[in-house]
Fold this sequence. Notes:
The chain is α+β, with helices and mostly antiparallel strands. The chain folds into two domains: 158 residues, Diaminopimelate Epimerase, Chain A, domain 1; 122 residues, Diaminopimelate Epimerase, Chain A, domain 1 (Roll). Helices cover 15% and strands 37% of the residues. It is built from five helices and 19 strands. Strand 14 and strand 15 form a beta hairpin. Helix 2 packs across helix 4. The longest helix is centred in the middle third of the chain and has 13 residues. The chain is globular, with a radius of gyration of 19 Å.
Amino acid sequence: MLSVPSTSRKVELMDAYEGYPETCLAASDPDAGNYKMKYTKYHALGNDYLVIPFPEFENDLDKRRIQLICHRHYGVGSDGILMGPLRSETCDFGLRIFNPDGSEAEKSGNGLRIFARYLRDKGLIKTQPFTVDTLGGAVSCEVSPDGKNVIVEMGIVSFDSTKIPVAGSPREVLKERMDIEGRIFEYCAATVGNPHCVVFCEKPTSDIAKRFGPMIETEPRFPNRTNVQFMEVIDSDTIRIEIWERGAGYTLASGSSSTAAAAVAYKLGFCGSKVIVHMPGGDIGVSFSPDFTATIEGPVVRVCSGVIDGEMFAKQAFEPRLPPDTG
Length: 327
């Protein structure tokens, strides 16, 4: 099992799941011929996640298996894995979020909207709104009666370099510059529980995001790496972004990326407190209170439910085809 970073709060099983066995058959067990891992797949504007129930498969998700499950050709394929529900000391539910590279994410706006829909579909929601605990902080969620629209209050957006974090003296990271392969980019940085770099771009394209996104993600000024958005301001109500996600790569849509980009547009006076964010996967609405508490709203679609066969985890089936494990 992947360990939770020491800075996070401890999460335990929900009461509803205490009847489950404490350990499960490991996928690598030579006797795992009948092994099955259950999942439910959803997408939010093309940003797709698999929800894997906790604790049933808690011990079966290590870094390499996460990489394989998320692989578009050798696994089920997804932009990440949501493991829950967990028990939280402060919220109604707890959630862990894993990127396709096996790293753990602090927060995901679309992942949270998908998880909220999953809880609704499983009949686990007793009252609305309800709260979910993540490594990046608590959020409030509300699901429409038909389940197709989900609202998440993401928390307060901060531009403080010590919170994002960004290297250098303490400051608000606004309209700074960086040189990437001889091209000068103007950017702002923000956190909504996870780090973001919003780059100003007159005509953002997927090619720009794919070329420069990986280099900005790993630029030394971002000690925890960063999500990257290439943003164009359309008018006082609308922006457009292309997204490179930390640990996931090029992405059709992102709730936290939408939040960060809209917050920058609002902070600098380009847009008002309600912003429509255009992304390749579709549009999401972001609104802000005066203290920069952000709320996102958009659709969620249930794609399918299924089981992963233990054969997929056999070392000879995937080891030569995945990138080397760098730790």
